[in-house]
Write a structure and sequence with these properties.
Two copies of one chain form a homodimer.
Chain A (H helix, E strand, L loop, with lengths): L11 H4 L8 E8 L5 E8 H10 L3 E4 L4 E4 L8 E8 L6 E7 L15 E4 L2 E4 L7 H5 L3
Parallel strand pairs in A: 1-6
Antiparallel strand pairs in A: 1-2, 3-4, 5-6, 7-8
Chain lengths: 138, 138
């Protein structure tokens, strides 16, 4: 059982979130050790509840139309150290331990690897692991 | 002129952003010094362009239905040190210098001041300045 929830969880904390019209809330994952912003994704109510219950980040994939547990294919699980809600209740921040040190599906440490320089987005972070070796060739 | 843009800016970098159906993209502001995630807000295309052109964070307020320059009322301007785009092009990260050390309209350093503890959101950050003294009583 996660220390983030009592043994018989009331759901009032889930009602405090201002869900969008399509039932989602933006969620930001930040690395607990480096402070780096790893990624921004989306959660539905069940993904947020599961994240708190299991201590592992779950998100809602808008492109695939289903919930996913971060790392379910790659092994790059996010162990949640803290969950935070913002002043307006419409954004969630996860402070996580990023297993494997890679959060991006491109094999980079994090997803925000393009920096605006002289009016162009420039890749400024190295690929740490070939995505084909993370996910296989299929 | 901001160093983030050339003197005669091409707009291809704005086209690289995957705008939502309502023309917005989530934007995360992170403090350049502390690494703290300050807030999550939204930008329309013009807000993102102005942010790059002026070096000060501009957002789109969904509740007020208008663009706003962060700090226009409070003086708590965000000076943008870096702008980043994520792998999917659907989230923006601003690394900022937060003038006044307060980014939240509640007078706290940042907006993510509620932490999930034992199934409840608990305020864990101090109010640094009374919002009435920031915005006036009106």
């Amino acid at each position: 059982m996660s220390p983030l929830l009592p043994s018989d969880p009331p759901m009032a904390w889930l009602d405090a979130v201002k869900w969008s019209a399509d039932g989602l809330v933006p969620a930001i994952a930040q690395d607990a050790a480096s402070g780096r912003v790893l990624m921004q994704a989306w959660m539905d109510r069940d993904a947020l509840a599961r994240t708190a219950a299991t201590g592992e980040a779950h998100y809602w994939s808008r492109s695939r139309g289903r919930q996913w547990r971060k790392g379910e294919s790659s092994g790059h699980v996010q162990k949640v150290r803290e969950m935070r809600l913002d002043c307006d209740g419409d954004a969630v921040l996860l402070v996580v331990e990023q297993v494997g040190g890679i959060s991006c599906h491109t094999g980079r440490e994090h997803c925000f690897f393009r920096r605006l320089e002289d009016g162009r987005w420039v890749d400024v972070e190295p690929v740490l692991k070939d995505p084909r070796t993370i996910y296989g060739d299929d």
